[in-house]
Amino acid sequence: MKRVYLVKKNREMPAAEDNWIVMDGREFAAFMQTPEGIARSPGFGRLAGCGPDDVILIVECGEENARQWRSERNRSAYADRVCGELGYTFVSIQSIPADIPGGMSEEALLPDGVRGIEEAVTDRMMSGCLHAAVRTLTPEEQDLVEKLFLSENPITEKEYAESIGSTRDRVHERKRSVLKRLRALLGTG
Hints:
The chain has helices at residues 25-32, 35-40, 63-86, 106-109, 117-127, 129-135, 139-150, 157-164, 168-186, and strands at 3-8, 20-23, 44-47, 56-60. The chain has 189 residues and is an alpha+beta fold. The longest helix has 24 residues, at 63-86.
């Protein structure tokens, strides 16, 4: 990941376009070895990019801003780690709109981060990705997916087993096998 270092020409002046020196890693390391760089080091904060290919900016922003940015980054990394370990999705309170429609709770506005394959299959169907994946299944497997997940009134495994003259256990195993293949085709598992 590329890093770009922005150092103020004059740290007493505001962060205007003409008050920056853009440095690469080697130049910044050399600057930080100087007495001036050592004195200014607490005032540098890191702004991480949104994606893995984005540039990371190290900006001279003042000690208070640098401390706040570091705190936010640490909090975000901690939340990501804990949520990942527990299987939860972290949602910032700032993502909830201030003007909630009448009668709606805040919880109703939160995205559902833990969903079953049934909801995931339905969502993918709407996007068109599932159409192609389902077409790769045998006609019997397509029928199973349609009746258990995609129909307006899905039926239970037991009802499906009775309709095809099989056992619920056998239908359950076929369903698991089909869902595993669909997950692999859709890149979700």
